């Protein structure tokens, strides 16, 4: 089994992935050994990855963070995707005690009131469940793309996640949205109907709105905040470290 535990080794994998198509990238990382986990938000990018995993029967665990605040359309898509590709998508939910503690401190919808409260909500509903989803994993696959936001413009194909001690792989890093849509159309991939209603990036229902013409793909996420690089923390090392310390 190959375990990637250094930046140099991750860079070597990054270079190998650059010359492969999506199926080749997923096949390569799934063959490195250990537990490989793909976390999906059921967005259009993630559906493309899930389709390739299911179609090629790759030994990759598929997991989703069922936050308790997802759109009904997203929840329905989980089962539709499982049925189409004959796979099991593992659901990871927040702990009731964590939700209760958050509500006692901030109020159930306190995330609208401050960035601190919003980060705390994402920590409870996303980061802590993610930590459980990645327990024992050596490789974490995501649907990050460079075109999603300025904050993600330098996304590599593979990088060493020092906080979680694993290889993080972004096999769609160089795909643009048009390529994603073309793949979906050509392969009959099921997608969230909200994409057709102006939601290119879909998270929790209270924190996501449709975007306006000309806005970046992720402008509808946490729209009330002014920081253009805003993230939930799943892909920010400092946030991961903070959760690990709890």
TrEMBL record:
Enzyme class: oxidoreductase
InterPro entries linked to this entry: APS_reductase, PAPS/APS_Rdtase, PAPS_reduct_dom, Rossmann-like_a/b/a_fold
Pathway: Sulfur metabolism; hydrogen sulfide biosynthesis; sulfite from sulfate
SUPFAM superfamilies: Adenine nucleotide alpha hydrolases-like
EC number: 1.8.4.10
HAMAP family from the UniProt entry: CysH
Official protein name in the record: Adenosine 5'-phosphosulfate reductase
Taxonomic source organism: Rhizobium chutanense
Gene (name only): cysH
